[in-house]
Amino acid sequence: MFRAVLLAATLSFTALSGAQAAPCRDAKGKFTKCPPAAAAPAARCRDAKGRFAKCGAPGAKPSK
């Protein structure tokens, strides 16, 4: 009974470590290094008239 529990625990840890591996592959199916994540787009601000403005300008508010 103890061996069965130990075996099940070992298999679950092995499966979890395999799921954490990087899933990036090239066109031929070989594992490659994943590209870095894309940076978040810069915030854009608008003035009172709705035109784009620098975010530090007076009256400029971040747009959605």
What report would you give on this structure?
28% of the residues lie in helices and 9% in strands. The N and C termini lie far apart (59 Å). Strands 2-1-3 form a three-stranded antiparallel beta sheet, with no helix packed on it. It has one helix at residues 2-19, and strands at residues 45-46, 52-53, 61-62.
Helix content: 25-40%
User: Unreliable runs, pLDDT <50, ≥5 residues?
Assistant: 14-19
Average predicted local confidence, pLDDT? 77
Give the overall shape.
Answer: elongated
Strand order, largest beta sheet: 2-1-3
Q: SS-based structural class?
A: alpha+beta
N- to C-terminal separation?
59 Å
Tally of alpha and pi helices: 1
The string of secondary-structure elements, in order, is: HEEE
**Main β-sheet description:** 3 strands, antiparallel
Question: Which labels suit this protein?
Answer:
3 strands, 64 residues, alpha+beta, 28% helix, 3-stranded antiparallel beta sheet
Topology summary:
Layout: H1 2-19, E1 45-46, E2 52-53, E3 61-62
Antiparallel strand pairs: 1-2, 1-3
Keywords: Signal
Signal peptide: 1-21
Summary of the model, kept short:
With 64 residues, the chain is an alpha+beta fold. The protein has one helix spanning 2-19, and strands spanning 45-46, 52-53, 61-62.
